[in-house]
Design a protein that fits this description.
Blueprint: H1 2-18, E1 25-27, E2 29-30, H2 44-48, E3 56-59, E4 70-76, E5 80-88, E6 111-117, E7 125-130, E8 136-142, E9 147-149, E10 157-163, E11 166-174, E12 185-196, E13 201-204, E14 221-227, E15 235-248, E16 254-268, E17 271-279, H3 305-308, H4 311-314, E18 332-333, E19 336-337, E20 340-350, E21 353-362, E22 371-382, E23 386-397, E24 400-416, E25 420-433, E26 442-451, E27 455-464, E28 480-489, E29 499-514, E30 520-534, E31 539-551, E32 555-558, E33 561-563, E34 566-578, E35 585-596, E36 599-611, E37 616-629, E38 632-648, E39 651-660, E40 665-674, E41 681-691, E42 697-708, E43 711-712
Parallel strand pairs: 1-14, 2-4
Antiparallel strand pairs: 3-13, 4-5, 5-11, 6-7, 6-12, 7-8, 8-9, 10-11, 12-13, 12-14, 15-16, 15-42, 15-43, 16-17, 17-20, 18-19, 20-21, 21-22, 22-23, 23-24, 24-25, 25-26, 26-27, 27-28, 28-29, 29-30, 30-31, 31-34, 32-33, 34-35, 35-36, 36-37, 37-38, 38-39, 39-40, 40-41, 41-42
């Protein structure tokens, strides 16, 4: 009986320890041998380097050995790290590899993932992903995945081969791509993940418990053996030249020519100075035009490369998508580009302190005055996984100043209840505007998150006062307090053989009150009686939604529909179903129906994906609303489609088209990207706007070419 008691009492501890199978350290092997990046792994150094092969399933069968053999080795020279991957496969003809372009969507393909924590700080890291076609993607990870910047583009390369034994990869990462402490002997955090899509099998080297993703760097293993390594380049220059022509309807063509660039300097091995001049974003794909059927602002993600590196460092959340700093306030006004004259940034990490300082000056354009935008952010690591931080933003134009300052803290642990995750976050902010009233000008947010496999719970209180005015930030709705709570159960019943897990969500509630009057403004409640994910990758959910909305004044829903003031209580049903994206044909369907203010609304969403081969991928999305307001019956359509062709991992072209019947415009975007050498890019872009209000008429045509070339001094 005593032995049984001890087993029950110690089993959680034993299970935690089992997530770190031995060996949990990989030793890098130094070589002076020339390595040819061909994916064949035939050099002598690969035979001499120690390999690890102890991979364990995270999915589908947590804790069981991997069904396919996987081996990893690391070799390095003074300036470059090489990672060798041996992905043996008993049925290599069944390997799924649909994509070839850079920054591919790796959730559909067989892939190999590496995370490196060069500061070994249990928080931040570099994620590198490759697939059997040689496609590559990279992500900057902060706060163990809370920050996930997949638009970062590091300088690194990979070559792969596929044989009758499986697929193999040779990955080259220059040390200049990474930031790390200047020491003769280094110890880094490292982990590896392999996905075998046809089996929906995910195997990891360490930290394979389901509640931990690979981004949970505190659960990773250790990389040793790095001695006297050097980041080769101290100065990186990336000048660009672009030219083209723009033709507006009824006007003569107008030539466009621009030169500028960026310069990067390593202040220390861990701090970087970035200077930009005459910054240009001609190659950036257009935003998706959306019909807004709410009374709140729409959020658009940042796509401009200059603002994407270290993006997560500069962010500070004060509620649901509310941000003190939102980079799209710089250089964009009402969807139009405002030229950037110049700017500078310093960012990186010094010991346990992350630092980010940025200042940008934009030019005058039409009625918009030249403006200075500045932001400073720091974050201090505390303990094993927690931190505190502060931020200040400043917008100055023509003597007028808008200044916002704030502070935040994050408590994070993976040890609550022995082995579970818990995150507690809090933030407080105030704004000052030189020509406005500066009382009732605060915002705050406190939330608790318990993100685990079987039980997931979250709760938050956020608010922003009447005069809170972050002009460099994003606020979805003003002058309110929001109370939020959500609970999900995701059991994995073994008596249902086809299901990986089922989902029951008793509540998901957002409750808003007016901060000034304390009156109820709106409520959103969602109940999910049933949802599931199958072992083959299908996902479905059934939801019931109820909402309350109090309008103190009318708002324009569409040009022909005005919703009068009043109190509205709506009930809706919803069904969603998505097939596994790893198939050559996949898709999803969405339907939501019920009352909507003074009428009724039925919304349909359809999406489809077709993989012809590793070179060609096609996708289509269609969102349709049927609105019935008695005498007014309206239909909205939003359609988007993409054709992507990748000749090889360094040359691809795409056509993206979109249309919605409110703007009555078709926008076509053709974009070719060629990477002549890693770090340099050539773009050829054609944007065609077609007016559909009276037939089809070419409204605006833009043709641009842009070359960015990287020099290392």
């Amino acid at each position: 009986m005593k032995k049984v008691f001890l087993i029950i009492f110690l089993s959680p501890y034993i299970f935690i320890q089992a997530q770190h199978s031995k060996p949990d350290t990989i030793t890098a092997y130094f070589t002076t041998e020339k390595i040819t990046l061909d994916g064949r792994l035939t050099e002598q150094c690969w035979q001499k380097a120690p390999r690890i092969h102890n991979f364990t399933q995270r999915e589908l069968n947590e804790g069981e050995p991997a069904t396919e053999k996987t081996e990893i080795a690391i070799v390095y020279t003074t300036n470059v790290m090489y990672i060798g991957f041996w992905g043996y496969d008993s049925n290599p003809e069944k390997i799924i590899a649909q994509n070839m372009q850079r920054d591919f969507k790796w959730s559909t393909d067989d892939n190999f993932e590496i995370i490196l924590s060069t500061f070994n700080d249990n928080r931040n890291g570099y994620l590198f992903v490759v697939n059997p076609n040689g496609a590559r993607a990279d992500v900057l990870i902060s706060n163990e995945g809370m920050g996930f910047n997949k638009s970062w583009n590091g300088v690194w390369d990979v070559a792969t081969t596929v044989t009758d034994k499986g697929w193999f990869a040779e990955i080259m990462i220059p040390f200049s791509t990474l930031k790390f402490k200047k020491k003769n002997d280094l110890t880094w955090g490292i982990n590896f993940e392999r996905n075998i899509r046809r089996k929906n099998e995910q195997v990891m080297w360490q930290g394979w418990y389901r509640i931990y993703e690979i981004e949970k760097i505190s659960q990773a293993g250790t990389l040793t053996g790095l001695h006297n390594i050097k980041a080769k380049n101290k100065v990186e220059l990336k000048p660009y030249i672009s030219g083209g022509v723009e033709k507006l309807s009824g006007e003569n063509p107008d030539g466009r020519f621009k030169m500028g660039g960026d310069a990067n300097f390593d202040i220390t091995p861990t701090l970087k100075l970035n200077l930009t001049f005459n910054t240009d974003f001609a190659q950036v794909e257009s935003d998706r035009a959306r019909i807004n059927l709410t009374r709140f602002s729409l959020y658009y993600p940042e796509k401009r490369q200059f603002f994407l590196e270290a993006k997560d460092l500069f962010e500070m959340s004060i509620g649901h998508r509310n941000q003190i700093f939102y980079s799209r306030t710089i250089g964009i006004q009402d969807g139009e580009e405002i030229p950037i004259i110049a700017g500078s940034r310093v960012f990186g990490k010094q010991n346990r302190t992350s630092i980010g300082v940025m200042s940008i000056q934009t030019a005058a354009k039409d009625s918009v005055l030249t403006t200075n935008y500045s932001v400073a952010r720091f974050r201090q690591d505390i303990g094993r996984q927690s931190n505190i931080g502060a931020i200040i933003t400043s917008k100055i134009l023509n003597g007028r100043r808008n200044i916002v300052y704030g502070t935040d803290f994050t408590y994070s642990t993976s040890k609550i209840f022995n082995d579970k995750n818990l995150i507690v976050y809090g933030a407080f902010s105030q704004s000052f505007t030189s020509d406005s009233v500066n009382n009732h000008n605060s915002a705050y947010s406190v939330y608790l998150s318990y993100p685990n496999d079987i039980v997931e719970f979250g709760a938050a209180i956020t608010g922003n006062q009447m005069n809170y005015n972050p002009e460099m930030g994003f606020i979805r709705r003003h002058n309110n307090r929001m109370y939020y709570a959500e609970l999900k159960f995701r059991p994995r019943p073994k008596f249902l053989p086809f299901f990986r897990n089922v989902v029951f969500k008793p509540f998901d509630v957002n409750y808003y009150v007016n901060d000034q009057t304390n009156t109820l403004e709106s409520v959103f409640y969602e109940f999910r009686p049933f949802g599931f994910t199958t072992k083959s990758g299908e996902v479905a959910e059934i939801n019931y939604q109820w909402s309350y909305d109090r309008l103190d004044e009318p708002f324009v829903l569409l040009d022909s529909v005005v919703i009068p003031e009043g109190i509205y209580k709506d009930s809706r049903g919803e069904i969603q179903f998505e097939t596994f994206r790893g198939r050559r044909l996949s898709g999803e369907v969405f339907v939501n129906w019920g009352s909507f203010y003074t009428g009724k609304r039925t919304r349909f969403g359809l999406a489809g994906n077709m993989n012809l081969n590793k070179h060609w991928n096609l996708s289509l999305e269609w969102d349709k609303n049927f609105l019935n307001f008695g005498e007014s019956k309206l239909v909205t359509d939003e359609i988007g489609g993409r054709v992507l062709y990748a000749y090889n991992p360094k040359l691809n072209a795409s056509i993206f088209g979109q249309y919605n019947n409110e703007d009555e415009e078709i926008l076509l975007n053709f974009r070719t990207n060629w990477i002549p050498k890693i770090g340099s890019d050539f773009y050829f872009v054609v944007n065609q706007l077609i007016d559909t209000s009276d037939g089809l008429k070419l409204a605006e045509t833009t043709i641009l070419a842009k070359l960015i070339w990287r020099f290392v001094l």
